[in-house]
Amino acid sequence: VLPVIALVGRPNVGKSTLFNRLTRTRDALVADQPGVTRDRHYGFAIHDSRRYIVIDTGGIGQDDEDIDAQAFAQTTAALEEADVVLLVTDSRQGLMPGDRIIAEQLRRMQQPVHVVVNKSEGQVGVSATAEFHALALGDPWAVSATHGDRINALLAQVFADL
Ligand code: GDP
Ligand code: MG
């Protein structure tokens, strides 16, 4: 059974971009994986010769005030399948109320959660991630899904938990 990593976060933080970077063109192989729904939100990826499944959720934090109930339920189901969860946030926007709402749900889960501060290309040091410590989900990871910055370091940490 392959480990499952779920990507969650508000719209436009870069979940799908990160999903595409992690899975590249390997999505097609997912259909052959037993027990995995043939769904475009599932992808097959490899880190350091270890294969894993990525789930790109679109569901929670749609709106800071009014979270869509059906999307919330779908994402909850995806989270239950996950071995590790990445809460994706946006360094350009900074910490948003929607991030806090999602973090609150994730803190109730058993699985390890990592806060990913995306769109951090060109930013060095702790300044990009400092405010995200407030989510109380450990040290945030500054990455760039579009540039690929620090993605491998993040994955090394994720796999260390598995
Ligand atoms: P999603 O709604 O969370 O799936 O977000 P998307 O993956 O669709 O990305 C939303 C927007 O953010 C798109 O315009 C992406 O090109 C952009 N984006 C994603 N990752 C990065 C990044 O690392 N750096 C920058 N500058 N933009 C990014
Ligand atoms: Mg998306």
UniProtKB/TrEMBL annotation:
Amino-acid positions noted as binding GTP 1 in the UniProt annotation, renumbered to this chain: 9-16, 56-60, 118-121
Domain named EngA-type G is located at: 3-162
Self-association state and partner proteins as the record states: Associates with the 50S ribosomal subunit.
Q: What does this protein do?
A: GTPase that plays an essential role in the late steps of ribosome biogenesis.
Q: Which family does it belong to?
A: Belongs to the TRAFAC class TrmE-Era-EngA-EngB-Septin-like GTPase superfamily. EngA (Der) GTPase family.
Name this polypeptide is given: GTPase Der
Which species is this record about?
Answer: Salinisphaera aquimarina
Query: Which residues of the complete protein appear here?
Result: 4 to 165 of 481
